Amino acid sequence: MLQPKKVKFRKHQRGRIKGKAHSGDTVHFGDYGLQALEPAWITSRQIEAARRAIVRHLKRGGKVWIRVFPDKPVTSRPPETRMGKGKGATDHWVAPVKPGRILFEIGGIREGLAKEALRLGAQKLPISAQIATKDALK
Hints:
The chain is of the alpha+beta class. It is 20% helix and 28% strand. The protein contains 2 helices and 7 strands.
């Protein structure tokens, strides 16, 4: 699973995801990308599940870039615990994603195979996403 090697602060506040993505909203590395249409927290498990679905469909062809990284810790308290006694321990890591953000990119394969692989990867994510091409954006 993806998680940072070292962090400055162990526990973060939740915050809000406002507005659209200004950085990471264009396809840079590959020819096709998977673009988020909704704001959400995407966990490291969901990123890994989508990556596996994409790579499995490609059958060792082409190259895949992961454009999001889970660097926000989410804490949780044990079940059936009384109120108080501080914030819980880190449970998992998430990547806050704004609408318009490119999540995955694929390059070096034909269009039909790339679109099908990205469609399978999008099914593993908790948000709706669209397939973007390098020339279609900006």
